[in-house]
Write a structure and sequence with these properties.
alpha/beta; elongated; seven-stranded mixed β-sheet
Length: 182
Amino acid sequence: METKANYVAVGSFVLACILGVVVTLLWLAGVQYSQEFDYYETDFKGPVTGLSKGTSVLYDGIGVGRVFDLHFDPHDPQKVVVILQVQPGLNLRTDSVASIESQGLTGGADVEITGGKANSPLLVPQPGQRYAVIPSRSSTFAQLEETAEQLVQRLNVAASRINDVLSDQNRRNLAEILTSLN
């Protein structure tokens, strides 16, 4: 049995293994960070509750990216500018629309992009724009909130008119008519 080990061979083998692990980790990290994205801009008027950097971006319900940045428009303080980072080759159309949608009543918010028609032109940055701009619309919940006030006003008017029809004087008149008909 040999009692002397070849320390140079063992050391070289260990160094080669460590070097291989480091190269593999750098390669995997490089693949992750070298992935390219397409960027789009959209503007939301009013509050963007639940939206923050890293919020999911969905395209017709499928996750395609995240919110990269959001800030106030320097020219319009009611407008929030949102930069979306999405996977390349998504081919958004000019009639695509972005909205903030809630995941149920208590869930978080997502940016939902609805697809356009296949024959619509592709969405590209206009001259002077850094990113292509996706038109936005109010979320379903915000639309309900806006119309709820109008609905309550209409119900108040209808209730007032029903009260007018069922006033004491009108009920007496109706009773007299029924008595006369009898």
